[in-house]
Amino acid sequence: MEFRKFKEKYIIRLNKGDEVISSITDLCRKENIKLGSFVGLGAANKATIGLYDTENKLYHQTTMEEPMEITSLVGNISTFDDEVYLHVHINLCNKDMQIFGGHLNECFISATSEITLLNIEGKVEREYDEETGLNLYKFL
After folding, report:
1. Helix spans in 11-136 (H)
2. Most buried residue, 22, 46, 48, 113, by CB count within 10 Å?
3. Which long-range contacts (CB under 8 A, 24 or more apart) does 96-101 make?
4. Which spans in 11-139 are helix H?
């Protein structure tokens, strides 16, 4: 991963073999980013995406291992127990031009990924919500 900072914005390039979630998390820790958002695109060869079943409070996951275009990568940055917490969704296109998308658990870059990250001054913590089974924003 390589990046350049422009005031509150970061331009990031992930390289072949980089994993998206861990790379962005590492950058946030290194740069002390506690709140923000990001968008990106690129190419991947392995990704695990999920869908949250709100009725049963379970994630259903699918892992895909094939050449894919990242047609949309969107996420936000907050904290949970004062640690960096990413919430990320992705759309992936396979060679048949089929689009698959959902909550991103893991994604490995096959060539490159270009990401723009906005650092927002401040902090929003999350807390576990019994009703939904999710870690929701907590506003004091």
Report:
1. 20-31
2. 113
3. 99/71, 100/49, 100/62, 100/64, 101/49, 101/72
4. 20-31
What backbone torsions phi and psi does residue 26 show, to the nearest 5 degrees? -60, -45
Residue 15 has pLDDT above 90, yes or no: yes
Two tokens, residue 77: 């940055």
Nearest CA-CA partner of 88 in 33, 37, 35, 17: 37
* 22: CB partners within 8 A, 6+ apart: none
Q: Is the pTM of this model over 0.90?
A: yes
Q: Are 109 and 73 in contact (CB under 8 A)?
A: no
Closest CA to 88 of 43, 4, 137, 25: 25
Identify the CA nearest to 20 among candidates 5, 37, 6, 40. Answer: 40
* Section 33-49 average pLDDT: 98
DSSP label at 120? P
CA–CA distance, 72 with 96 (Å, rounded to integer): 17
- With 0-12 CB in 10 A as exposed, 13-18 as middle and 19+ as buried, what is 104? buried
